[in-house]
Structures are given as C-alpha cells and as structure tokens.
C-alpha cells in the first residue's frame, strides 16, 4: 500500500482565509468563533458560530456563477483554485481525463434551497430558480469544481457527516491507485442559515453558551457541546512518484486510513473509533509509538469525549501521545473539519510545532489525554487525524512528513 502525496492545499476557516493566514492565527491561538450574523439567531438556543467574515468568495468568481451557486459552493470553488495553484498543477497541461474530483458534504446548498423555498411559498413556483435543481445537491461542489477547471476524470461525493472529509481522501487514494493522475479532494462545509441551523440543533450537540471563549470545550469538565462553523480544506493529492517526477513540492504523505461503524446503541460493544485507529496504523505499518501527535475529533460533549479518550488510551496508553483540537478556534465544520485537520497536521509537521487547543482550562484527568493547550515544539514526523460523524461514522488518517 503505497503512500500518496499531498501537493496542494486550499484552506478556509473562520480564523483565516488561506493556508498562511489560517496557520498564523491557529498558532497564536486566535479564535474565529463569535455571535452568528448571517441571520438573526436571537430566537434560537445556540447563537455562536465559526463564521467566515471579511472574506467575499463571490469577488473571486465570475458573475455568471453567482446566480447558480450556494455560498458553500462558492467557498469550495475558491478553495479548489487555491489548492491547484499551491500544487502548481495546470489541468490544461495534462491529458483530458487525468484529474478527478471527490468531495464530501453534509447538507448541500441549504442556504440556496431555503431562499428558493421562501420564493415558492411567498411568490409562487414561477419565482423559483431553475438552478435549484442542482444547487442544493450534495454533489454540487464536485460538479462545479469539475466544470470550472475542465476536470473530466473520475468524480464522486461522500456523505458521512463529520467523517466524510477523511473518507473522501480515501476515495481519492483509490482513484490514484487505479491510474488517475491527480485528484482534488476534501471538503468545505457548513451552512449557516435558519433551515440548517434548525437541523443542527435537533442533533442536541450544540453548546448554548453565549461566551465564545466558554462554549466549545472538548475534554473539559465544563464541556456541554460544540460550536458549528463553516470552512474546511480542499487538497490536491497525487501519486508520490509522479509528483516528485514533475518537481512538485510535497506537503506530506497519506500513509494509512481506517474506518469503522459504531455498534447499535444498547449493544454493550465499544464504539468503532479504536478499530479505525488500529486499521490506519496497520495500513501505514506503524506502531502506536510511531505517532507523534493526534488531531482529535473533539466532539465537546461528555459522552463522546469520553468515548474518544477511551479509544486514545486503548491505542496509546494514558497520556501516551500529545492530542490537540485546533478546531476549537474554527468550530466543527461538518465534513470540512477532517480535511482542515489534515492540512493543519501537515503544517505542524513542516514547522515542528503542535498547535493549541484553546479555552480548555479544566481538562479531566480521568480521561488520560495529554491535551496540548499551548503551542508545543517537539520533533514531529507522523500524525494521526481522527473524525467522527453523527450516525456512527469513525475514520482515521495517518500522515507523515515528506
């Protein structure tokens, strides 16, 4: 099982648009969480979000695309363009069917769909955009990226809630092994509109606190939920030998992947996360002691934090590996969190520093987790990224420095 190379990264998050801005903010512990302003949240129990502000995706796109795209798709198009530029990869210079696209998504273009439903009920069907037929769909980001860049290789979309972004990387890896030259993959996710907000609240996992510094506290004694956000990362992945043959800069290597479902509730069996971790390490050919840092899923609810801590201690021993959750500065981004953590881990390996988990001041000793709450400079060669999704999804990706 050969590793694949990450050669391009396009990053968008509430605390930074672009990999450089995001990494600078993350290392300094600067959070992007705040009161939601996309709509008036005063009548909702949760009012905080990791919202992109000061960045206008529409300014980077041709006007003809604006009428047919949701904000989430616009962000995805920008991230894909940045990833291709970062990889110094010109699709026009490669054979027509050589580049594929596999993205992940949790909701599709909910904001676009809500607007068109409002038009339907207030004005009638003649006022509903024809673009509604695809703008809301889970696969719309894959399609629009493919069309914009003339990418006619294999395409797909993965829907597995928060684990979907890592699963998309695994799907891209399979395409590379079948001969695809390069794949744009990952996820930019999150939909901040009343329709999607109502759906998120129904899951019962969002914090209702008002202070952004006190709302998303994974592995903390005060944990009561998470803050949702928008953003993520799209990555260009290539066969390692092919990437190096063209002189590409390699950010890092994806060496292993594991996935497992949780058992049915009430079965008494352990959740699937530990199995996903074991699979990723086995495929990478690593021992647990080879892992230098874990980027946690960090659900921020007591039960899910306890489950993740149990999986970590089972795999690595109590306080056996440094664990971090920089998503405390961005919020949980649906399928976008996993790929953003992958990009963050690759930058951590590059600069030999673990970014912090912010705001956690009462980490529970009984969890046995060595939680990194301030930047920690140690030798870093290998990282493990974890992601879990509503409904029992668990995924893990093993990364190494190039």
UniProtKB/TrEMBL annotation:
The answer to whether UniProt assigns keyword Nucleus to this entry is no
* Family annotation (SUPFAM superfamilies): Thiolase-like
The record's section on CDD domains has:
CLF
In terms of superkingdom, the source organism counts as Bacteria
Name all Ketosynthase family 3 (KS3) domain ranges: 1-401
Keyword field: Acyltransferase, Transferase
Any single GO BP term:
fatty acid biosynthetic process
One Pfam family recorded for the sequence? Ketoacyl-synt_C
Q: Which GO terms describe its molecular function?
A: 3-oxoacyl-[acyl-carrier-protein] synthase activity
* InterPro entries hit by this protein: Beta-ketoacyl_synthase, Ketoacyl_synth_C, Ketoacyl_synth_N, PKS_Beta-ketoAc_synthase_dom, Thiolase-like
Similarity section = Belongs to the thiolase-like superfamily. Beta-ketoacyl-ACP synthases family.
Name of protein: Ketosynthase chain-length factor
Source organism per entry reads Streptomyces tagetis
């Amino acid at each position: 099982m050969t590793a694949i190379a990450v050669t391009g990264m396009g990053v968008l998050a509430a605390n930074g648009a672009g990999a450089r801005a995001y990494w600078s903010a993350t290392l300094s512990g600067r959070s992007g969480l705040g009161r939601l302003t996309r709509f008036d949240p005063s009548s909702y129990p949760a009012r905080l979000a990791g919202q992109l502000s000061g960045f206008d995706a529409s300014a980077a796109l041709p006007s003809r695309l604006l009428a047919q795209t949701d904000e989430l798709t616009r962000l995805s198009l920008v991230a894909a363009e940045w990833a291709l530029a970062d990889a110094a990869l010109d699709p026009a210079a490669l054979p027509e069917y050589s580049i594929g696209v596999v993205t992940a998504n949790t909701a599709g273009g909910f904001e676009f769909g809500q607007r068109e439903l409002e038009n339907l009920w207030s004005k009638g069907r003649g006022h509903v955009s024809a673009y509604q037929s695809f703008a809301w769909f889970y696969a719309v980001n894959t399609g629009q990226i493919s069309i914009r860049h003339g990418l006619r290789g294999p395409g797909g979309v993965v829907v597995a809630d928060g684990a979907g972004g890592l699963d998309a990387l695994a799907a891209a890896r399979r395409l590379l092994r079948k001969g695809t030259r390069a794949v744009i993959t990952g996820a930019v996710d999150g939909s901040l509109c009343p329709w999607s907000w109502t759906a998120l609240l129904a899951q019962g996992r969002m914090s209702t606190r008002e202070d952004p510094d006190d709302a998303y506290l994974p592995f903390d004694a005060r944990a009561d939920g998470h803050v949702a956000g928008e953003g993520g990362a799209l990555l260009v992945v290539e066969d390692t030998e092919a990437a190096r043959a063209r002189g590409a800069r390699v950010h890092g290597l994806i060496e292993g992947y594991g996935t497992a479902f949780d058992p049915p509730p009430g079965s008494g069996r352990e959740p699937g996360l530990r199995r996903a971790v074991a699979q990723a390490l086995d495929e990478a050919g690593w021992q647990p002691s080879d892992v230098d840092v874990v980027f946690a899923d960090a659900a921020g609810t007591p039960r899910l934090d306890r489950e993740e801590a149990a999986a970590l201690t089972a795999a690595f021993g109590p306080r056996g590996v440094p664990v971090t959750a920089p998503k405390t500065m961005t919020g949980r981004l649906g399928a976008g969190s996993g790929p953003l953590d992958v990009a963050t881990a690759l930058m951590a390996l590059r600069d030999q520093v673990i970014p912090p988990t912010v705001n956690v001041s009462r980490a529970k000793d009984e969890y046995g987790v060595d939680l990194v709450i301030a930047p920690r400079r140690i030798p870093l060669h290998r990282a493990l990224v974890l992601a879990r999704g509503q409904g029992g999804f668990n995924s893990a990706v093993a990364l190494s420095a190039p």
